[in-house]
Specification:
By secondary structure, the chain is mainly alpha-helical. The protein has 15 helices and three strands. It has a three-stranded antiparallel β-sheet with strand order 1-2-3, covered by helices on one side.
């Protein structure tokens, strides 16, 4: 268990400062390389690297993907040697390029289609939405790569993609209304004969390019849950808390100082940082103040409540409901007192002339 944590920390240090997209791709590549070693750096030598390189022959990777994996592993090996974690510099054992057998027809496995259909409804880019949807429906990537804007037709609030394979057999796929509507601005400005999916030079994208784009989406989807967990565990500055709450930093600073005994924090002075629990507790405090509760009432609730009471939305709602209930009860009591007072005054006025 300790070794796994050490490797994870080492990878994080190696990736520090790189763009987010590069970190995601390189992390996946290096973890794949380490898995071939059994996760044991003690087994890292030139024969082990040659065995890993031999796997490229039957994996049918795109040339660009293979070059990226080689670059990632070569950089990681150099980092390990510089840190003294391996005795020898093994970067020369990893070539800069490798002749690999590319898959003539990239395919999307049936087990991934459900994930692609779900991911197509979450991404923002209309073209990527369409690509994921068509691939998730089982449309072959060589057919998708030949798709032109003239092949997209409206149909009863949705759309239909009509294209043909290499044998000129027509293939039709229904495009959901949400994706179809997002494509409308592009349909209005793109030339009908232009390819829907283009490479950087404006030519039609290759099936291999589409397969690599789909792979990136699947990797990012797989990492999103872990990323959310890491975000919850990350310590925040006061500026970040103010941004999340949508409040001026001076206001958040005042609330922090006013309710400091009830807000978790790490460190002191300018190095002070706050866990996610502090954000939720401050959000709860702001909601209570807006509902009419006084700071003394909020402090009383924080003192009497369990430590995690204000960090969960359902509990915060329960506290707010309780405050509203107590205020309503107080209003009813005051109303009854006023009614009794009014009745007494009426009785006094009625007996005053007799005197």
């Amino acid at each position: 268990m300790q070794e796994e944590f050490s490797l994870t920390r080492t990878i994080d240090e190696w990736l520090a400062g790189r763009p987010a997209a590069t970190r995601r791709a390189y992390r996946h590549d290096v973890q794949e390389f380490l898995a071939a070693l059994g996760g044991d750096l003690g087994r890292l030598d030139e024969p082990a690297i040659r065995r890993w390189l031999a796997t490229f022959d039957h994996r049918r990777l795109a040339q660009a993907t293979a070059r990226r994996k080689l670059a990632a592993v070569r950089s990681f090996l150099r980092f390990l040697h510089q840190r003294g974690l391996v005795a020898h510099d093994l970067t020369r054992a990893v070539p800069t390029t490798l002749q690999v057998t590319e898959s003539p027809v990239p395919i999307v496995r049936s087990t991934e289609r459900g994930r692609l259909l779900a991911a197509s409804l979450r991404v923002a880019d209309p073209r990527l939405q369409l690509l994921l949807w068509l691939a998730g429906c089982g449309c072959p990537l060589p057919v998708v790569a030949r798709l032109r804007w003239r092949d997209l037709h409206p149909y009863d609030g949705e759309g239909i993609a009509v294209c043909s394979d290499e044998q000129n057999r027509l293939l039709r796929c229904v495009i959901p209304g949400m994706i179809w509507r997002s494509l409308q601005p592009l349909l209005a400005k793109e030339h009908p004969d232009a390819p829907v999916f283009q490479s950087s030079d404006g030519s039609a994208a290759r099936p291999e390019d589409l397969a690599e784009a789909i792979g990136w989406v699947l990797d990012e989807t797989a990492d999103s849950r872990l990323g959310a967990e890491r975000d919850r565990d990350r310590l925040l500055t006061l500026t970040e808390i103010a941004r999340r709450l949508g409040l001026p930093e001076t206001t958040v600073r005042y609330y922090r100082d006013r309710f400091a005994p009830y807000l978790p924090a790490v460190g002191s002075g300018r190095a002070r940082r706050y866990p996610q629990q502090t954000v939720e507790r401050l959000r709860w405090i702001v909601e209570q103040l807006r509902a009419g509760a006084s700071p003394h009432e909020i402090e009383a609730q924080l003192r009497s409540a369990p430590p995690d009471l204000a960090t969960h939305a359902p509990a915060a709602d329960a506290q707010l409901t309780d405050s509203v209930g107590r205020l309503s009860q107080r209003i009813r009591e005051l109303t009854e007192s006023l009614q009794r007072l009014s009745q007494i005054l009426s009785e006094l006025r009625s007996i005053a002339p007799d005197k």
